[in-house]
Amino acid sequence: MRRTACRIRIATAVAAVTLLLAPAVIVPPSALAAGGSRIVKARILDMSARRAEMRVDVAGRPETRRVQGAALLRGFRAGDLVVLTLDPEGTIVGVRSAALTGRVTRVDRGRGQVFVDVEGSGEQAYGVEAKLLGRVRAGETIRFEAEERSTGESVITAIR
């Protein structure tokens, strides 16, 4: 990987500032929350209210995280796809479902794709796992979970 750096000099009547810009780990703005916490999409593998911890799969890697309070675990079960809010130390301080809701606008069975208008944001293409393709029809409103694959394709993995 080629590394480059760029120097920028900003001069004002008060002072001159030099910034050194260099490539680093890029964190999308949507992955940051207030106060330095992070947002992570994960699948629940196991959880324990008694120990106040959750074991999750984050991008194919199992992790065990402490949970700020057992109340955060209510309504969730192993297998659910969730969005976690982590504090700077990595403790889970928020959990919400990652399920989306949308209206199926087109189904392309040959390509294994469906096109969904997700919550009014416009039509988006999703690959569909073969076992789910028969359950989807144009015009239906569905609640679903989607994951982004390493190829960049969004794939529907569950329909609720």
Structural summary, described in words:
With 160 residues, the protein is mostly beta strands. The protein has two domains: 29-97, OB fold (Dihydrolipoamide Acetyltransferase, E2P) (Beta Barrel); 100-159, Nucleic acid-binding proteins (OB fold (Dihydrolipoamide Acetyltransferase, E2P), Beta Barrel), CATH 2.40.50. Helices cover 2% and strands 51% of the residues. The protein is built from one helix and twelve strands, in the order E-E-E-E-E-E-E-E-E-E-H-E-E. The protein has one helix at residues 130-133; strands spanning 6-11, 16-21, 38-48, 53-58, 61-66, 81-86, 92-97, 100-108, 113-118, 123-128, 141-148, 154-159. The strands form three sheets. The chain has a five-stranded antiparallel β-sheet with strand order 5-4-3-6-7, with no helix packed on it. A five-stranded mixed barrel has the order 8-9-10-12-11. Strands 1-2 form a two-stranded antiparallel sheet. Strand 8 and strand 9 form a beta hairpin. The chain starts with 5 loop residues before the first strand and ends with a strand. Residues 1-6 and 14-32 have low confidence and may be disordered.
